[in-house]
Every structure is written in C-alpha cells, then in structure tokens.
Amino acid sequence: DAKTTQPPSMDCAEGRAANLPCNHSTISGNEYVYWYRQIHSQGPQYIIHGLKNNETNEMASLIITEDRKSSTLILPHATLRDTAVYYCIVSSSNDYKLSFGAGTTVTVRA
Amino acid sequence: GAVVSQHPSRVICKSGTSVKIECRSLDFQATTMFWYRQFPKQSLMLMATSNEGSKATYEQGVEKDKFLINHASLTLSTLTVTSAHPEDSSFYICSARESIGYGYTFGSGTRLTVV
C-alpha cells in the first residue's frame, strides 16, 4: 500500500481557508486518495476522495497534482467545528483496505 | 448517504468475559466490512477484513481466536472479544463501503473498558 505523509499539526483562523497537504509519492495508477476526519471519540467522517481529477463537494475540495504524488484538501471557510484530526489515505489496489497514518491535527481558532 | 450503525457505543465488562460488538449497514449491502482498534492518542489500526459468507482476514499480529468475526449477512458483521483483559480496553470501529468507487462509511465506534 502506498504510504502518505502529512504535517502533524496546523492551526488556522476561523472563516479562513484551511489547506491541508499530503504527500503520496508511491501511489499507483489505480489507487484513490481519500480524506477523512475524526473528532474526539467518534468514528471517522468521510470528507472526499479522488483518483486524478480535482474534486469538490459541500464539505471540501481536493486538489491532486498532475503526477498524483501529492494532494491538498481545502476547507474553504473553516469553522470551530472543523477542529479534528484529518487523515489522508491511499486505498490499496489489491484489497481496498484503508490504512490510517498519524494524520494532521487541525485546530481552528476564533 | 450510506449509514453504518455500531452497537453498543460503550460497554464495560469484567476480565475473562466476552463482549460482542455489532456493525450494521443500514441502507446498503456490504460484502466487505473492516474492523479497527484505536488506543488513546493513537491512529486507527486495522484489525481485520470481514467477508460475507467466508472467513475473516486478520492483519499481522491480531489474534483470530481472540477477536472472532462473523459476517453472516450482507448487512451485519459482529466482532466478539473473547476472554477480555484490561489491555483489550480500546475504541473499536467498523467500516463498510457501498461499492467500489464510493467512500467508506464508519460506525460511531464502541468504547470497551475491561475491568
């Protein structure tokens, strides 16, 4: 499975865009990039996923570089409720398991 | 959207007893479900892949005789922690996917405390 690298933590201001980077330099051609977040003592919440095109939904946008070696999750207008651990995960092409790394702890400050 | 229901949300059991955790896909069928464990301040660790109608596939280091998984129908997988000990106290989470290309949906988790 391709591994991902994320910064351990980041702060952002309420109302501003939050840009969360992720490196996945060993990703293979048929592996998806998934983003989840986890608020304390809850199950992870799906945010968005993509293969090679940029994606947008009501929660966020996902920008994937042309070589697919990195991606950025964008929360357009961060709120205090967006404070969570954000996980960037690359799905296994063989068995579609999701393996979680350490993630990025995002703290949104008023 | 897809909903995965996990029950119970919290359970306290005595050392040596067994505990069963249920994971249900409410509005879709899931041939595959996944079970994770999470210790405080750590990330989720995949324990096993639950396959409907067949044996579960366990990750390296996970004792299959201790963590029994049954996936008897397309909407239900159960994890039984047998002969629980305090070190089994953890947050257990299941997930499922409606179909390839969709996101995985996670249950709300079960906080197990063994005393």
Notes on the structure:
The complex is a heterodimer of chains A (110) and B (115). Chain A is mostly beta strands and 110 residues long. Helices cover 0% and strands 44% of the residues of chain A. In chain A, the strands form 2 sheets. In chain A, strands 1-9-8-3-4 form a 5-stranded mixed β-sheet, with no helix packed on it. A 4-stranded antiparallel β-sheet of chain A has the order 2-7-6-5, with no helix packed on it. In chain A, a hairpin with a 6-residue loop joins β3 and β4. The mean pLDDT of chain B is 92. In chain B, strands 2, 4, 5, 6, 9, 10 and 11 form a 7-stranded mixed β-sheet that branches. Helix content of chain B is 0%, strand content 52%. Chain B has no helices and 11 strands. Chain B has 115 residues and is mainly beta. At the A-B interface, β3 and β4 of A face β4, β5, β9 and β10 of B.
Short description:
Chain A has 110 residues and is mainly beta. Helices cover 0% and strands 44% of the residues of chain A. Chain A is globular and about 40 Å long.
Weakly predicted, low-confidence segments of chain B: none
Strand content of chain B: over 45%
Tertiary shape of chain A: globular
Mean pLDDT of chain B: 92
Please report which band the strand proportion of chain A falls in: under 5%, 5-15%, 15-25%, 25-35%, 35-45% or over 45%.
Answer: 35-45%
Question: Rough shape of chain B?
Answer: globular
**If you average the pLDDT of chain A, what whole number results?**
93
User: Could you say which structural class the secondary elements and strand pairing of chain B correspond to?
Assistant: mainly beta
Output the radius of gyration of chain B.
13 Å
C-alpha Rg of chain A (nearest Å): 13 Å
User: Helical content of chain B, roughly?
Assistant: under 10%
Taking the sheet with the most strands of chain B, its summary is: 7 strands, mixed
Query: What's the helix count of chain B?
Result: 0
Low-confidence stretches of chain A: none
Helical content of chain A (DSSP H or I, runs of 4+): under 10%
Task: Give the end-to-end Cα distance of chain A, rounded to a whole number of Å.
Answer: 38 Å
